[in-house]
Give the backbone structure.
Amino acid sequence: MAIGKQEVLAWLEALACVYAENRQYLTDLDAAIGDADHGSNMDRGFAAVRAELAAREPADIRKTLETTAAILIRTVGGAAGPLYGTFFLRAGAAADGKAELRAADVVALFEAGILGVQQRGKAAPGEKTMVDALLPALAAMRDALAAGGGLTAVLEQGAAAAEAGMRATIPMQARKGRASYLGPRSVGHQDPGATSSFLLLRAVVDTWRA
Amino acid sequence: MKKLLNDPAQVVRESLAGLALAHADLLTVSFDPAYVVRTDAPVRGKVAVVSGGGSGHEPMHCGFVGKGMLDAACPGQVFTSPTPDQIEAATRAVDGGAGVLHIVKNYTGDILNFEMAADLCQAQGIEVRAAVINDDVAVQDSLYTAGRRGVGATVLAEKICGAAAARGYDLARLEALCRQVNENARSMGMALTSCTVPAAGKPTFELGEEEIEMGIGIHGEPGRERVPLLAAREIAVRMAETILADLPFRSGDRVIALVNGMGGTPLLELYLVYGELEKILHAKGIAVARRLVGNYITSLEMAGCSFTLLRTGDELLSLWDDPVLTPGLRWGL
């Protein structure tokens, strides 16, 4: 199966539902080590994305992802706004000129987005951030592709690695973002940013699985 | 949750609408994107001073817009940094051709959003410099954290830089001045109670009836340690000593002292605490040249207070004394 604009729109639509459903969950995780707003911020941002895409459907995949970025940068706030905004902006650029995405294109799209997040936030692995879910997911997607896997295998292995990466943030001590102020008290809590990143990847699998 | 609300999702917008009506002589509020500017902006030939941050800290920042302080403020959602489109629009609205200083508190979200906005403004030919405030001694600055948080020194930096801009300092000199204020200021806070973010609907953290949080952040982020309730005298000693040792402040120094309420503590108690602080400083040979006691950088309805001390010389004192006319701070006019 190849991914066209409609599949991309379906993923973004699914994300609006996912973040609405997980609003309280993400906010509770954030209350433990941050400032208790991650759930409401993500929900507000993706609800605005859904409304914009429904009102004015963009011409192609790149425009769809770039519109998503612009809305997130405008509506999410916090660190998550510029970080997820950068993700979709870079992902959009990687989809330039493509009407359909095959497995290798999907990996390239996530690669651009994930490396963009790392660049903007300047986080390294192990610092209890989004990249602890995203970088393992990227590595798993590349491996699955190199092993000859199709789109479903690439996505499933990516999401599985993101989930493991998310859980691996629990024993970590935060070294970036607000949670870092807690020092050792940040240990024992799952990172809300890594969690929203896992949810983003799980929604891809759920919508694009062949 | 018991608060004066219509709809938790609209709290910032509706509060800004009220601010606009209450202070129409001093400031103008724009929506979509939301920002607040002084009524006579842009002031030709003057460097503009812009700040912003999450809402819930009122009067900071919107209440410091007016003459002699901020040209513009960008209010984010409660405890959430403003977005780049707000900051860009505010910066454009107040640029008088002499450049714009962004005063940014050191939080990951604020830094990222102001950086993105500065990129956008510079692409349009507006000269922007950013100065970061990170004065909270409760957080150890190290490679292993996002660095110290920006708290009470922000209020002092906004007042002093606003005065300097009004006097005609250029952008480079103003940026250096802001860094000087930050480098000579230290703060620490404590909480008696938690606070409730309207959209969350329940307290950000739990604090027992007999417990206090020393080193609290202005968003209810936990601090250094949780200890049993102490006498005000003891609390003042612990906070003052941590602050004094950090810079360090020395006998013979002159300071501007801010005793700030977190939002839910009455002035009755803040003045009591101020009295304790001045006694401690006096005993150490530190002269309080100016003082400010009240609610200036709050954390919704949290009870508690923070101390900020700024080591000052004649230039900073003179700028501090310059006239200011804003909703939250006014003198000399």
